[in-house]
Description:
Layout: H1 15-21, H2 29-38, H3 41-51, H4 66-73, H5 75-92, H6 97-120, H7 126-136, H8 138-146, H9 150-161, H10 165-173, H11 177-187, H12 192-196, H13 211-222, H14 225-232, H15 246-257, H16 261-272, H17 275-285
Helix pairs in contact: 1-5, 3-4, 3-17, 4-5, 5-7, 5-8, 6-7, 6-13, 6-16, 6-17, 7-13, 8-11, 9-10, 13-15
Amino acid sequence: MITLDLDALPPLSPLAIEMLALRIEDDDAERKLIRILSSEPQLAARIIAMANSAAFGLSRLQFATVPLALRRICLRRALQLCTGALFGHPVSERLAPRTRLQLWLHALAMATAASELARIKHLPHAEEAYLAGLLHDLGYMLAELESAGIIESIAHRAADNGLSMEAAEVEILGSEHGEVTALLLTHWGVPDPYCAMFRRHHATPSDPRSIQAILFSAEKLVRLDVFADELFGDRDHLFADALLPLEGVGGHLLQEMQVDAHELSRIVDRVLGQVATISGLATEMAAA
């Protein structure tokens, strides 16, 4: 079992909590976000790079300023990506490039799947679900920072012993990665309602319309072999030993998500259809 030394982490940007509290519905949301980005030049450069990447389609125009980049990306999505980047930076910046990229791929896949689940089920949490999916992998990033290769060790333990990924995480980390995310956010002074949504999100949720329920199902979606193969391109990735066959878990997913087989197929197809966007954004998020 590894020991997590939170005090040894690089400091969190003081603007991260402010960005987390920023509401897109506010009349001055764009002005506030531009002000925050003016104080975070690396993040501003990254958001401009995202706007000019293939993730948002090819364009002959160059989006060279922050306001233009925000409008290209869409203010709501830009706010979520900036928030995820600010929180992810202290734990991901010192990871090996391959690990950093694969964890951002997984995080963005989680965000996309969670948002899509919330949308199709007509839940009021679609945008909140996207950010929750992004932040949810902070526990994995922290674990890898403390002990390189730990995720592959967890996946091997699960596969070799017939365990769920979550049970193997408890054996090796002492808790599930969602709990580690909550612990990290609490350490950084994030308000408890944000931390609480990650605690035990792998336990069967009592409220099928909650963020925890969305994360619970999205995790299984992004671990489907058909999705992971498309996202990572091969089986040489951190989660390779933890993949789930759709034929084996489809029935459970239908029950957990309370959707029929046709809706499940639509969800998988729609998330698969966004692989290029996920890959492009992950490349920019993982840039050193």
